[in-house]
Fold this protein.
Amino acid sequence: MPWPATARYDLEAAPGSLGLVQDLLNTISAGAPREPDLLQDIEAAQTWVNEATARWSEGVGQAVPDIILDAESLTELRSFRDDLQALVALGPDAAQDAEEPVPVLHTATAALQLGQDGLVRLEPRGTGWRRLAALVVAAAFEGQRADTRRRLKTCRNPRCKVAFFDRSRNNSGVWHDVKTCGNTANLRAYRARRRATGQA
């Protein structure tokens, strides 16, 4: 089962539960032609939540969490997505470069449960968007521990911002799709240089 938001942009998903973080980021309206914002209204958002949590459940082997959104939850979920997008756009080294303690943007609650099979599982707490946020924050934390989180990026094209998992050897990718966003940006820069040279 594909991640519903990421599949719209024909991208390979991030590994493991980090795919949930990427999928939330990719609920934005982007692409050419533009895909709709999957968090634009309750119906679309609930459909995405149901599909994304089913995909998460399939990947981690846990039950699908029951997450029901209302109008207030949807506003909070959009705000959470926007904050997460801004952090991913800063890059993984932003926290290391900070000279002062980094303020907390969001707190999510979860319980660690030890099963009879000997495995420790994370059980998200809360209701509505907070339960989903717990899953997303836990997935981002797992990505940090596995050193894969630093490869989750947003496209450098300011008109795009699609989240992609950089599979380049040296983690140097900046475009979600070089053919569309990369070529467009390079052509724009080339034309700007020609204009500057012509004016000089």
